[in-house]
Design goal:
Pfam families: ZapA (PF05164). It contains three helices and two strands, in the order E-E-H-H-H. By secondary structure, the protein is of the alpha+beta class.
C-alpha cells in the first residue's frame, strides 16, 4: 500500500489542498500547473471573471484536447492483443521448458 501525502496547489491564485498517493505527487503537481496555465489563459483572453466558470471552461478545453488526441492516436487493440498472445506463448514455452527439465 502506498503512503498518502497532502499536496498544496495554487490554481488561479487560490490555494487548494489535496491528498494523493506519494508516487502520484509529481504528476498531480504537473497537472495542476497545466490547469493553472489554461485557467490563466482563459481569464486573460476573455471577459470571463468568475473563477468557477473559468475552471469549468479550462476543464472542458483540456478534456476536449484529450479526446481529440485519442481520435488522432486511437489504441490499436488488435496489435495489443497480438502482443499479449506473443507474450503468453513465450511464457508457456518457458514454463514447458522448465517442466521438461524435471
Amino acid at each position: 500500500m502506498s503512503d498518502t501525502v497532502t499536496v498544496g496547489l495554487d490554481l488561479l491564485g487560490r490555494r487548494f489542498t489535496f491528498s494523493c498517493p506519494s508516487e502520484e505527487r509529481d504528476s498531480l503537481m504537473a497537472a495542476a500547473r497545466i490547469l493553472d496555465e489554461k485557467m490563466r489563459t482563459i481569464r486573460d483572453n476573455s471577459r470571463v471573471v468568475d473563477g468557477e466558470r473559468i475552471a469549468i471552461l479550462a476543464a472542458l478545453n483540456l478534456t476536449h484536447d484529450l479526446m481529440l488526441k485519442r481520435v488522432e492516436n486511437p489504441l490499436d487493440m488488435e496489435a495489443i492483443q497480438r502482443k499479449i498472445e506473443s507474450i503468453d506463448e513465450t511464457a508457456q514455452r518457458a514454463i514447458q521448458a522448465q517442466a521438461d527439465l524435471f
